[in-house]
Amino acid sequence: MVVAIDGPAGAGKSTIAKKLAERLRFTYIDTGAMYRAVALWALRQNVSWDDMHRMEQLAIAAQIELSPGHIRLNGEDVTEAIRTPEVSNGASKVAVIPGVRRAMVAKQREMGERANVVMEGRDIGTVVFPDADVKIFLDANPQERVRRRLRDVRAQGENISEGQLAAEMKERDRRDSTRSDAPLAQAPDAVYLDSTPLSLDEVEETILKIVRSRVTNGKDFS
Ligand code: DC
């Protein structure tokens, strides 16, 4: 079973997808972390963002392992290293490159075929798993998304102003939703959920209800 959660930065996808996966005992897959890992490698290797061929090679060669709470790139734990604003920005740039997306999508499909998953990203319901059992498009208003992201990055010790973060998020959302290959978009059959006025528990309960309503084979995913 695949539960696909797509939406813009700061909508609350990671928090909710993690909780849902725990609750359902599914595997949680953060696809943004995979693009971030490729961006981190590219930054370390000084590969230019315009070098599409080299970027694709890195994406194909990258050994990315996801385990609860951790991500490894070529054997190294990069869980914290991929959360800097520089890597956020880079991830959105490498994600424009079709060859990079092909490599990531192949890895993501493999993961989704091996286990029941809650997978979050930008193109899960539209491209990676167009036949996902449950598709959610999670959104929140821009000010709220900036507020949430600011809390997260400050908790990680990053010193960034609200104005700077807002500008970076706006640019990233623009790039993510206007690229020609698999832009951020709501799948026609996805449920749109605005998390702005909702608590985390309310979002979780709403999605769980949708998951339960789609489970027809008697399994208890509660
Ligand atoms: O979810 P995130 O902020 O960690 O994602 C980082 C970037 O990766 C985001 O700006 C766009 C890209 N991304 C993507 O293009 N497709 C996905 N399925 C997930 C992320």
Silhouette: globular
Question: What structural class results from the helix and strand content?
Answer: alpha/beta
Q: What separation lies between the terminal Cα atoms?
A: 14 Å
Arrangement of strands in the largest sheet: 2-6-1-7-8
Helical stretch tally: 9
- The beta-strand count equals 8
**What is the helical fraction, as a range of percent?**
40-55%
Ligands in the structure?
Answer: 2'-deoxycytidine-5'-monophosphate
SSE string, helices as H and strands as E: EHEHHEEEHHEHEHHEH
The oligomerization state is single chain
Uncertain regions: pLDDT < 50 for 5+ in a row? none
Q: In percent terms, what proportion of residues is strand?
A: 15-25%
The overall average pLDDT, rounded, is: 94
Keywords, please?
five-stranded parallel beta sheet; 222 residues; binds 2'-deoxycytidine-5'-monophosphate; alpha/beta; three-stranded antiparallel beta sheet
Condensed summary:
The protein is α/β, with parallel strands linked by helices and 222 residues long. It has helices at 13-24, 31-44, 52-61, 85-94, 98-114, 124-128, 142-155, 162-178, 200-214; strands spanning 2-6, 27-30, 64-67, 70-73, 76-77, 117-121, 134-139, 191-194. It is 51% helix and 15% strand.
What does this structure look like?
This protein is of the alpha/beta class. Helix content is 51%, strand content 15%. It has 9 helices and 8 strands. The strands form 2 sheets. A 5-stranded parallel beta sheet has the order 2-6-1-7-8, sandwiched between helices. Strands 3-4-5 form a 3-stranded antiparallel beta sheet, covered by helices on one side. 2'-deoxycytidine-5'-monophosphate (DC) is lined by residues 9, 31-33, 35-36, 88, 91-92, 95, 121-123, 172, 176.
